[in-house]
Structure formats: structure tokens, C-alpha cells
Amino acid sequence: MVSQLYYILIALLPFCLGTVIRRWDSPIVKLPYATYQGYHNESSGLDIYLGVRYGASTEGQNRWKEAQPPLDQTNQGILNATVFPKQCPQGTAGGIITAAQYDPLQSVDSEDCLFVNVYAPPNADNLPVLVWIHGGGWDHNSAREFDPTPMINFSNNSFIGVIIQYRLAAFGFLQSPSMAKDHGLNAGITDARASLRWVQQYIEKFGGDKDKVTIWGQSAGGGTILHLLAAQSEPQRKNEKLWKNVIMSSPYLTPMGKCDSTSWQTQFNNFSSAANCSGDNALECLRNTSTDTLKTLSHQFDSKLLAEHPSAYEPCIEGEGGYLIGNTAERLKNGQIPNSYMIGGSNFNDGSGFVPTSLTPPSNLTNISAEADSRLSNYLTTDFPLTEGSEQVQRVLDLYPLKDFVDNHARGAEIYQDVIFACPVDWTLDTNQNSWRYLYAVKDAVHARDNAYEFPYFYNTLSPNSPTLYSSYIGSIVSLITTSSPNNLRDVQPENDPSWPLYVTKGEYKVLNVTIANISDSYISQGAQQIGTKERCDFWAETRITGNW
Fold it and tell me: According to the UniProt entry, what is the EC number of this protein (predicted)?
């Protein structure tokens, strides 16, 4: 009883003495067009601003136009930045919404969605900045699934995190040459550029250093980075410095093709007709169509795959006067990209979830090999711009013989993995002198499993918990963000963790894996087919460049 009373008195002592327990003031940032009040998270020690506008609403006449500057809201007093902003309209379920919950008219979606979330240490001064570009197939996800607090805290609060949103599905990637005059093609990609320009203009207000920006994207976010690399390499943009460091995780480089190709035009015409818009004024009609109608159509067309493309909504080649002037695959392969300090990687089984199980023939057939080749050939000419019976298709069958795989599905998955994820990483790093590669091989290592370590608040169930692997992987990421090398912060990485070799020297890369006891077992390797062999990647580079996709 005495000891219990003692602790009660000790607890009450500050109040008896009139001492006030410190409370943090809500942080306020004043921008030229608006003043925002965020909140201080006492658990993480970070000032957080949710829903800071970097662009005007994209509805109505701003649809399929390049992101417009934020409207002046200085006469509205201090704006609340303590709740997540509405997310861009989703083309399908994903992220915070399950398939059972998904409704294309859900209230959490809005065309007024060009916002960033900022996570900053209090009194930050010229800190490095991470800008995260989320994945989700360019048709789903938002900023709220990606909280960078764990990695900022792991870095001893030594950088600022900026999480962006950009237009998705039909709102961001419905393509028609009629949009060109408003620079509205590839709107989701140019939104990302607009957010990076916002960082250059305003991150100093949050304590960030615009000259120490790292951009990081996974899947479609990584694909967005590949397109940004290509676009910013054009002569007229080479003096615009939007980043210093680059991280790309399983970047999604789908077939492009010209924006005026038959595939894109057919999709636009069918979409417009479904909205009761057609003819020369179809685009203007769509801009005057209700948001709910477009949300519904965006979802319906999400399942209608584009001819010779593996998905419905993807970037295209605009040509002169546009942002994505040329073929991104060609720019990457030929080294026509801005010099950056880069980490790039892919997952051991990145392609397995993207190809149909019907590729594998029934086991009771008399000639399984011939049927497997036939099914694979049909897949290649349906989902990719390859011609039936062509030498290219035969070359694919020869490069990926059925005998090398457990079944035809695994064969197709390896092809998809090379074309879309692994080879684009290799092309990008091959021509960059300051580049490092990894292969994520934890557990089943299917696409996006690495999110478990990048953003554990939301994705922690995707992979086994391993603090030492977190140190090996995220410790290296933090090192790149803060020092432009994954090897400089050795004190935050596990003892005996191998240093990252430069990829351009010998094609060596770091394999991220764990033991049975979930202890980091990262090691250096070279030449595994899971990262795309040189022969296969050279073939796909030539095929994509000659076919302009």
C-alpha cells in the first residue's frame, strides 16, 4: 500500500507544483497561395501536413489538361491539414478499399485530388527530401496507404517525406490526340512532374533542401519514374533539375505505342460513345459530363484490355510538342537520361500474378509442348505488340524453352517479368555510373511484397517481420536519401551486411533475403535469370525499339 501511494504522489507532483506538461503547438506553414495547419505526432516526433494542394481541381474544363496551379486561398484563413485528402477516382478496388467494399461512386474519391502529404521533423532546416510516387497499375491507390514515418524515424528523423497523388485510370490515362493542345495526354505522368515542381518551389517552407530530392516509386510509380527520366532528358528540359537521387522498385514499363495509334483511338471512341459523346466535339462533351458518369465508365473500361497491351490504362508516345516525346524504352537503353544516383530492383517472382493460368495446357494432352507454344504465342500477340507467326514470336519461344520452367505459366511469368519489370531496370542502370541493383527474394517474392518493408503501417502482413532485413534494405535506402550512396550509413545496417557493388562494373547486385529464422541473409550475386539475362534483355530492347513500343 505504501509503495502504491508513493507512485501516485510522484505522478501527481507536477500538478501540485503547478508545472505544465509540455504540449506541442500545431505546426503552420504559409505558402503564397494558402496557409496550412498540420499536427504534431508526439509518438513519432514528426510534424504532419495532410492534403497540401499542389494543383487545382481537375474536374470540368481542367479534365485531360496539364495540372493547373492551385487557386489562391489566402482569403480563407488557415486551412486544415490534419485529415487525409480525397483520393483520385479509382478505376478498380485496391489500397484502402477491398473488392467487396469497392464502388466506383465511393465518396472517398474526388477529381479534386492533386495533393501531397508532408512528414517533417520539427524545426527542419535544409534536410534531404524523399518524394514517393505510389504504384497501383495507374488505376488505383492513393497517398494514405503510404506513411513514411517508420523509415524517417529509422533515419533519426534526418529527412522529409512527401507522398503524392496523381490522376488515375480514365482521368489520368484516357488518350486522344485531341488532348494534345492542352498538354493533357499522359496526365498522370505530368501530374507527377507538377508535384516535383511544387517540391522545388515550396519544400523550403517545410525545412527541406530542393537540391537533395530523392524520387522513389514502386510498380506503376516506378514506371512513372522511368517516363520522367526519359521526358526530362529531352534537350529543352535538361536544365530543369527535379531530383538528385532515384529509387525504382519493380518499375512497370508497359508497351507504349503512339498516342494516335488505332488501339488508343478505339478506346477513346468507345469510351466517348458510352458517355453519349462523339464526333469532333467528343472531348469537350466529356469535359461537360458528370463526374459520376465518368467514374462509372472509368471502372467499366478498366476491365477492357487495350489491344496489344496487358492493361487498360497506360502511357503513350506523344511525339514532338508533348511531354513523352519518344519511346521510353529506347531512351533508357541508349542512356539518354539525366545523371542520377540510382537504386533499382525487382522481385524474384514479379511476373507470376500477371499472366493467365490458362497458359498451362491440360496434362492429358498428347503433345503438351506444341500446345504450350501455341498458347504462349497467342498470349504474346494479344497482350503485346507482336505479330502472329513472326520471327520475333519464334525467337521468344527459343529464348524461353518450356523445358527450363516448371510449367507454361511460369514460362509466361518469366517473359512478363523480363519485358515489364526486370529488363527496364537493367537498361536504366547499365548506362549510369552511380547505380546499384537489388533482387527482392523474401518468401514468395511476388510483385509488391517489398511494400511490407517500405511502408509497414499498411502492408506489414505481406512478408515476414525481420528487423535485420529492414536494416539491410531500408538502412541502404536511407543512406541513399541522405548521402547519395547506399553504403555510407553502415551503422544502421546489420553487422557483416555486404556493401552494394556498382551495377555497371560487373553486373553484380544485392539479393535481399532472410533465413528460416527471419534473420537478414542478404548477399551479392550475379547473372540470375530472375533479373533478366543480357541475351533476353537485349532482345526485348531491340524488339521494343524497332516496334516503337
Answer: 3.1.1.-
